[in-house]
Design brief:
The protein is 5% helix and 41% strand. By secondary structure, the protein is mainly β.
Length: 477
């Protein structure tokens, strides 16, 4: 089945239940099965899978506890962190599309918190946003419960004091499998982060001007909570790597020495067309889904580099830093694997005139402090945008400032229709929830507002969001 432009409101429910169900693959020869929990050759380099406490086949029921723990970042003694279920990253929640997810959440932090399900199309009350979902006070509990409509790699994090709480280690991942996934020999989830630590190994608590501008972080790059680990992989295997950037501000500019990434998916799951690229730029909040086939003799090493990237204000002068080193394991090489191509049958949202412009900028407030603005206003002063349920709208996101901003929308996927006036290639459709809008550039995005409620949109540099670059869209029935 294929969807075309111009689907009307009457067909909405049907359209969305089918949107992501038609995917075809080519080139998946001789595949092994989807990797099973517990058998991961990455061992403790992989995020820990949360236990599903509900035997019912279509319900995933887990317990999450946010609390204080410690984490040994390489080269440092145990660093006090805030974490979900005691680990950084927090657990990996595993589900299938159509499942109901039930999360029994308890807050053992000294501060109120919420869980926001980044990229997941949830009912508004489950979005974990202050003022919409009640904050969970210290010692309190809250149950999150919703159906998983889409396949993809999503993540979760607090939406209260998010700049501090996420930086302290509160983030985890949710992998939702679709009915049709490319068959691969191994699939790894890679949660990226960066961190700056004080000499005593603690996370700085003071927000200096640079951290406010660039986002808290530092030159300790983390691959599933580990600094530059060595990760085994098998020669000839079809390896799927699913990246999510949980850093406050760092843009990961990844290159795998000697390889080309085949990109098969992004925020909202698989793409209509896969493509090959030597580097992927992952801003905070975003996901990339790639496949590669490792090559070489046992012991051969390949570095996953984070190359400098100039996102404004800092010049991108830092050296390339290793995120991880992949090493060919001694297992017998696999043969006959071919990189798959994907053709997800995504509906393309219709083009048309721009309905609204969202201009992102920086300014000084009355006290002379840096604030981040949307259409000249900051935070609670940004007027609420009203939209009608079911409307498809085109927004121009315009960056007036000297630095890149990753634009993120809750509740809905959006599709990029053009960048700086240049239309997207006609065959390429992807559903996104976070995109880079470079300094002094613009993007036109299309959104179908198919779920009522108050939905934030904001820069995913969390300091920018907390200091003003956040607004709300009220989708009314
Ligand atoms: Cu990942 Cu409003 O956030
Ligand atoms: Cu920003």
């Amino acid at each position: 089945m294929t969807f075309r432009n111009g689907r009307r409101a009457g067909g909405l429910a049907v359209a969305f239940s089918l949107l992501f169900s038609a995917v075809t693959f080519a080139g998946c020869s001789g595949p092994a099965s989807v990797p099973t929990e517990g058998a991961d050759p990455w061992g403790d380099l992989a995020p820990r899978v949360a236990r599903d406490n509900n035997p019912a086949p279509r319900v995933v029921e887990v317990t999450l506890e946010a609390g204080l723990s410690t984490h040994p970042f390489a080269g440092f003694p145990a660093t006090p962190v805030w974490s979900y279920n005691g680990s950084v990253p927090g657990p990996l929640l595993e589900a299938n599309v159509g499942d109901e997810l039930v999360v029994h959440f308890t807050n053992r932090l000294p501060r109120p918190t919420t869980i926001h399900w980044h990229g997941v199309r949830v009912p508004n009350a489950m979005d974990g946003v202050m003022g919409i979902t009640p904050e969970t006070p210290p010692g309190g509990s809250f149950d999150y419960r919703f159906a998983l409509k889409d396949a993809g790699l999503f993540w979760f994090h607090p939406h209260v004091e998010s700049d501090v709480q996420v930086n302290n280690g509160l983030y985890g991942v949710l992998r939702v499998r679709g009915a049709e996934e490319p068959k691969v020999d191994h699939e790894g989830v890679v949660v990226l982060d960066d961190l700056g630590l004080l000499p005593d190994g603690t996370i700085p608590t003071v927000l200096d001007d640079n951290a406010k501008m660039m986002g808290r972080g530092g030159d300790i790059l983390l691959f599933n909570g580990r600094r530059a680990p060595t990760v085994p992989w098998r020669a000839g295997a079809l390896e799927r790597l699913r990246f999510v950037n949980a850093a406050n501000g760092r843009f990961f500019n990844l290159r795998l020495e000697g390889y080309v990434f085949r990109v098969i998916g992004s925020d909202g799951g698989l793409l209509t067309e896969s493509y090959d690229t030597e580097r992927i730029l992952i801003p905070p909040g975003k996901r990339f889904d790639v496949v590669v086939i490792p090559k070489g003799a046992p012991g051969a090493k390949t570095v996953l580099w984070n190359d400098p990237y100039d996102r404004g204000h800092e010049g991108g002068h830092e050296p390339s830093l290793a995120v991880a080193t992949f090493e060919i394991a001694s297992a017998t090489p696999l043969t006959g694997r071919v990189l798959p191509t994907v053709h997800a049958a995504l509906e393309r949202l219709p083009g048309g005139p721009i309905d609204r412009t969202i201009a992102l900028d920086e300014a000084l407030d009355a006290a002379g402090d840096v604030t981040f603005t949307i259409n000249g206003k900051s935070g609670a002063d940004v007027p609420v945008i009203a939209e009608h349920l079911g409307a498809v709208r085109r927004y121009e996101v315009k960056n007036l400032s000297d630095m890149d901003h990753p634009f993120h929308l809750h509740g809905f996927f959006f599709q990029v229709q053009s960048r700086d006036g240049v239309p997207q290639p006609p065959n390429f459709v992807s559903n996104e929830d976070t995109i880079v809008v470079p300094a002094h550039a613009s993007a036109v995005i299309a959104i179908r507002f198919d779920e009522p409620g108050m939905w934030p949109y904001h820069c995913h540099i969390l300091e920018h969001a907390e200091y003003g670059m956040m607004g709300m869209i009220d989708v009314m029935k």
